[in-house]
Write a structure and sequence with these properties.
About 80% of the residues lie in helices and about 0% in strands. It has about 210 residues and is mostly helical.
Length: about 210
Amino acid sequence: MERLLPHKIAIRISNKVVNYNQELEPQKDEIRYGLEWLIASINQILLVTSFSLPLGIFKEAIIILVVGALLRMFSGGAHFKGYFSCLFFSTFQIIIISYFAKYQFEFLQGNKAVITALLIFSLLITILRAPVLNKKSNQFNYGQRLKLKIVSILLFVTFVLISITVVSNTPIMYCVYLALILQAFSLTSFAKLTFGFYDRTHKLSILRR
């Protein structure tokens, strides 16, 4: 399974690219990173598509995927250590909230005040906590962190404004709202503890086999 990780695949491909194009040696790490990001993105899109199409929630799922991914790109957030754990959990999360947004629309409309309160709370979390950079934390200085925070806040507000003006009172609006709320949750200490607990438990279960 380790050979199927995007990181491992990207290393193999970048090695071959540089082997046949020696002038690209200085850009080898950038090529590897770009390939890793591309492969991981393709895997996520394919998995989300395969589950969402049969359920009739493809549009909703893609919107949640895009909104969450764009915000996470700048705000960061807690995640599982294992790639496949992250892949399947995030896909499951997207499918669940997509289905809920589309087929429980009346329920969401009836609890609009609660959703709005959660959205405001999520914005406050983003303002206070973003960016959460995990292993890359030491690679960013204060100025870079501040830029990531500002972009995260601007993206959050922009998505909300677009929802209010373009897709107000539709399932798509709640797709955006729920994606923002879940991404903000990943910035919290509770999310970090939850994912960390799973990683430790999963590691112990493997060691006992």
